[in-house]
């Protein structure tokens, strides 16, 4: 089945991802509507859109997260669909539902799938049912002390207390011994309550030296699904990704095919629609499911670079009712890609550094891509996250990719604010990075050295 392509799409986001989505819309001949807070009136995503609507003051709760205001913007401009990007309302099942009630397509999965995967306990149960291996842990939420102690003994310390509604690494506590369990559970609970309004927690085996490996999937909601290989996102600080690469230095073609096929089969069985990411921890040759993200990821370009597939374009096509035009055998992997998240932050303390960009010179050349929403003379507002751009580099081999990345980083000049570029300049010179020998703790260990 093929659906009618959209005429006009509203992009409910800001920054580099709003621009990224606009590019795909323009290539498909779709008109774009940008929304912005008063703090973003000068933003590039607003300047390049066909139309724009100011939806409120700077705080996200009054603008980018405000559903009534977004709905009003949709009505005024008469759009057929909304792309939520990542963050903000991208995993808000209620938003997806409300749009559908207004006959506006949400470019993403069904609200039902967003809801299941947004609850990490329900997501784990679903994964288990579909034959995906999960981290050993409590079968559901844990309430009382005796039960928690029993489960922790069973799986063995260290354990990790996690929030069912968790995100961004919040509400997570590592517990090394039974005497710390109660206080850590209480701390995780109150953190989760404050951040997500839900204090349900569960317990998982704490893996001590895993890699974070995630599989990009794509379904059409009509029973067809494919995988686009993996991304290795093990370089993290405070459970937040800093640098990502594809393919993972830890996998070979066989293990990639095996996990990819398991996941694609599960996604097809779910009748999942759109792009999704199934996240795993990988240790000693075994995969352990941790969560599924029902949206586009920040790091999606590394997959695009090695597959040549435009993920946003495919998201829009599938949301318009088309079947997947790609089958698994159309997906081929070529070369290697690495992404560096360029944040407006001090490269050692990670303190945000908003302000005016007095000079901006991005790198170029073969295999170099910069996805960014900023420009020379632009003032970065202090209200939103500090990601100002992504440098993505592709090479025929991992080695060529690393050499090209070193060259591209040396060309990149941003003045007026602090950025994380010096950190990447350092990382790229570390033998462990050159050899692909790192797990999820590597970066924090590296940063803790004087
Ligand atoms: P969030 O949604 O808050 O980002 P995730 O479940 O995706 O939480 O986990 C984020 C990161 O936390 C992972 O990439 C990993 O570094 C770490 N982590 C999560 N679960 C475990 C675990 N069972 N053992 C060790 N580390 C974990």
Count the DSSP helices. 15
Beta-strand percentage range: 25-35%
CATH superfamily of the largest domain: ATP-grasp fold, B domain
Uncertain stretches of 5 or more adjacent residues: none
Number of discrete domains: 3
The global form is globular
Counted beta strands:
20
Distance between the termini: 59 Å
| CATH architectural category of the largest domain | 2-Layer Sandwich
Structural class: alpha+beta
CATH class of the largest domain: Alpha Beta
CATH topology of the largest domain: D-amino Acid Aminotransferase, Chain A, domain 1
Q: Describe it for me?
A:
The protein has 450 residues and is of the alpha+beta class. It has three domains: 8-107, 3-Layer(aba) Sandwich (Rossmann fold), CATH 3.40.50; 136-205, Dna Ligase, domain 1 (2-Layer Sandwich), CATH 3.30.1490; 211-447, ATP-grasp fold, B domain (D-amino Acid Aminotransferase, Chain A, domain 1). The chain has helices at 15-27, 44-48, 67-77, 93-101, 111-118, 120-129, 145-155, 178-196, 253-270, 300-307, 311-319, 398-411, 421-427, 431-434, 442-448, and strands at 8-11, 31-37, 51-56, 81-83, 105-106, 159-163, 173-175, 201-205, 211-220, 225-237, 240-246, 273-283, 286-293, 336-343, 355-356, 359-361, 368-372, 379-380, 387-395, 413-415. Strand 10 and strand 11 form a beta hairpin. The radius of gyration is 21 Å and the shape is globular. Bound molecules: adenosine-5'-diphosphate (ADP).
Write the layout of secondary structure elements.
Blueprint: E1 8-11, H1 15-27, E2 31-37, H2 44-48, E3 51-56, H3 67-77, E4 81-83, H4 93-101, E5 105-106, H5 111-118, H6 120-129, H7 145-155, E6 159-163, E7 173-175, H8 178-196, E8 201-205, E9 211-220, E10 225-237, E11 240-246, H9 253-270, E12 273-283, E13 286-293, H10 300-307, H11 311-319, E14 336-343, E15 355-356, E16 359-361, E17 368-372, E18 379-380, E19 387-395, H12 398-411, E20 413-415, H13 421-427, H14 431-434, H15 442-448
Bound molecules: adenosine-5'-diphosphate.
Adenosine-5'-diphosphate (ADP) is lined by residues 135, 160, 166-169, 204-207, 210, 212, 236, 239, 279, 281, 290-291, 440.
């Amino acid at each position: 089945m093929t659906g009618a392509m959209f005429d006009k799409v509203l992009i409910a986001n800001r920054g580099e991802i709003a621009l990224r989505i606009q590019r795909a819309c323009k290539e498909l001949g779709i008109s774009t509507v940008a929304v912005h807070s008063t703090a973003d009136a000068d933003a590039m995503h607003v300047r390049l859109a066909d139309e724009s609507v100011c939806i409120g003051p700077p705080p996200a709760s009054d603008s980018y997260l405000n559903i009534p205001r977004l709905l009003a913007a949709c009505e005024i401009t008469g759009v057929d669909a909304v792309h939520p990007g990542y963050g903000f309302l991208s995993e808000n099942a209620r938003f997806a539902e409300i749009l559908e009630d207004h006959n506006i397509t949400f470019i993403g999965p069904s609200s039902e799938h967003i809801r299941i995967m947004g609850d990490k306990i329900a997501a784990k149960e679903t994964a288990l049912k579909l034959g995906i291996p999960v981290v050993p842990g409590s079968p559901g939420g844990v309430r009382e002390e005796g039960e928690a102690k029993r489960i922790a003994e069973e799986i063995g310390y260290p354990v990790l207390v996690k929030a069912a509604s968790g995100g961004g690494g919040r509400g997570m506590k590592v517990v090394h011994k039974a005497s710390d369990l109660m206080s850590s559970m209480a701390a995780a609970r109150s953190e989760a309550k404050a951040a997500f309004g839900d204090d349900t927690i569960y317990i998982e085996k704490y893996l001590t030296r895993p890699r974070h490996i995630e599989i990009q999937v794509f379904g059409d909601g009509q029973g067809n699904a494919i995988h686009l290989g993996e991304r290795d996102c093990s370089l993290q600080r405070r459970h937040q990704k800093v640098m990502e690469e594809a393919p993972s230095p830890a996998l070979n073609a066989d293990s990639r095919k095996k996990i990819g096929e398991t996941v694609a089969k599960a996604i097809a069985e779910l009748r999942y629609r759109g792009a999704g990411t199934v996240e795993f921890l990988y240790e000693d040759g075994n995969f352990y499911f941790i969560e599924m993200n029902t949206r586009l990821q920040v790091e999606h370009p590394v997959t695009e670079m090695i597959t040549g597939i435009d993920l946003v374009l495919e998201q829009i096509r599938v949301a318009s009712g088309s079947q997947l035009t790609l089958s698994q055998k159309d997906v081929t992997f070529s070369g290697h890609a690495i992404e560096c998240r360029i944040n407006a932050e001090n490269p050692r303390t990670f303190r945000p550094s908003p302000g005016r960009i007095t000079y901006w010179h991005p790198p170029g050349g073969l295999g170099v891509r910069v996805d960014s929403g900023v420009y020379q003379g632009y003032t970065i507002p202090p209200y939103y996250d500090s990601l100002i751009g992504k440098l993505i580099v592709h090479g025929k081999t991992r080695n060529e990719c690393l050499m090209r990345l070193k060259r591209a980083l040396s060309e990149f000049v941003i003045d007026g604010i602090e950025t994380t570029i010096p950190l990447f300049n350092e990382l790229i010179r570390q033998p462990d990075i050159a050899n692909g020998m790192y797990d999820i703790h590597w970066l924090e260990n590296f940063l803790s050295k004087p």
